[in-house]
Amino acid sequence: MTVRIYDSRSQQLTDFAPVHPGRASLYVCGPTVQSGPHIGHVRSALAYDVWRRWLEHRGYRTELVRNVTDIDDKVLANATDDESWFALAYRVEREFSEAYRAVGVLPPTYEPRATGSIPEMIELIEQLIERGHAYPAADGSADVYFDVRSWPEYGALTRQSVDDMEDAADADPRGKRDPRDFALWKARKDDEPASASWSSPWGAGRPGWHIECSAMSRKFLGDSFDIHGGGIDLRFPHHENELTQSSAAGLGFASVWSHNGAVTVNGTKMSKSLGNSIFAHEMVETVRPIVVRYFLLTPHYRSVIDVRVVDGELENGSLAEAASAFERIEDFLERADAAAAVEAGELPEAFAAAMDDDLSTPQAVAVLHETVRAGNAALASDDLPTATAAAASVLAMLRVLGLDPADPIWAAPAGGAEADALAALVESLIAERAEARSHRDFARADGIRNSLVTAGIELEDGKDATTWSIA
After folding, report:
1. Residue partners of 74: CB distance under 8 A and separation at least 6
2. Which of 16, 227, 235, 353 is most buried, judged by most C-beta within 10 A?
């Protein structure tokens, strides 16, 4: 029983050997909450949800950290006079959480926001400066950059030489020694709100994107952890820069780099910039959420999933096939359970072997359907013991994959118009209260809280955010 995983850095399968025996630690790059989730975001979260479930099944005590990038150029750019950057970030974060929940993605062990770890980011930048790998801009702007020429292994993850790389486009190059140097700290600009900057030894500003994940993974998982995951599009520059700055700071960082494949539309990369994104709610509205999960996890997590769109509408072909396939599984379980109560049994060896082999879900799902066919044949011949055993194995496989139709999460559609309206209203008031507090208008902030309490809504102010619940 050895779990094997493909390491993007070495470009080969490797035995999973955790830093701490009996435990598994994963850090997965979560969303930049600038706008709503598309199906590529959901596919990535789902891939590491299945990894987590399998590692837990194999007996590992598993911690999964998935961050939220709630401060970024794009978040600031998408803010409006009517919706501040932090209100936008919080609203979109909830959209992501709902999209993940809709397809059965378990909540991460920790889900830190970047804005909650600013001190740790500053500390890490200071270490890099002390070690000679980073420098404040000479123009006194408060920008701080990583010196890529100071680290000979820069490019190790994507196997590029520095001279072949494109210039780093994450900051104004005015204070850079090399155009490929990337931003660790970005000075506040005159047109940016004061609430979007923090004090630092170099001046007011905010962290660069890459330093955020290095600091948060260290904060929640330690200097060394097992798996760093994310979409294939993050390999460069984000993950390359993470690896470089963390290694240069003397951290062990990730033992394995794992990347899930992209989702394309009609063979073209799906991205917000191209305007061809298929948003999560569109797919969930086309077929049942459990079928979306089945559709997304059946291909290997490192493969490309191509979704077809005709005349601007999501084509139902592949999704319809997935729906039919999953209905055959459900139909068998219902008929088997009607004959004799079904309890989850043992996993077939072939299923477990496929999952141990870099989470080979196509082979695992093939075993699932083979077992369903064998169970149907047994029912047809009135061989109840064989049919019951097959159903027990099918249920065990479905539970490991997060596809048990009896799981309460699939009992009703996600959300609903009334719930969505309530959430939007409360979140708007929470954002308004936060803005009032930032301007020290505590009377207004207390008035909003009192109004919500009167309406039966309780607020809880945490370190990183305010959460609400119905009293």
Report:
1. 32, 34
2. 227
In this model, does residue 413 exceed pLDDT 60?
A: no
Continuous segment of H or E residues that includes residue 392: helix 384-401
φ, ψ of residue 266 in degrees (nearest 5): 50, 40
Q: How far apart are the first and last CA of the chain?
A: 48
Q: Which tokens belong to 156? A: 């190790």
Instruction: Judge contact between 226 and 254, C-beta under 8 A.
Output: yes
Residues within the annotated binding site for ATP?
A: 272
In the chain, which segments carry CATH 3.40.50.620?
Answer: 4-260
pLDDT at position 414 over 60: no
Residue in the block written with tokens 């999501």: 314
Residues flagged as binding site: 29, 213, 238, 242, 272
Domain 4-260 CATH superfamily: HUPs (3.40.50.620)
Compute, in degrees rounded to 10, the torsion defined by CA atoms 385, 389, 395, 397.
-160
Question: Regarding the domain delimited by 265-410, which CATH topology (the fold level of the hierarchy) does it fall under?
Answer: Four Helix Bundle (Hemerythrin (Met), subunit A) (1.20.120)
DSSP secondary structure letter of residue 238? I
Helix (H) or strand (E) holding 221: helix 209-221
* Tokens found for residue 115: 């804005």
Alpha helix positions (H), 84-157: 85-102, 118-130
Binding-site annotation, residues for Zn(2+): 29, 213, 238, 242
Residue range 240-276, pLDDT digits in tens: 999 999 999 999 999 999 999 999 998 898 876 777 8
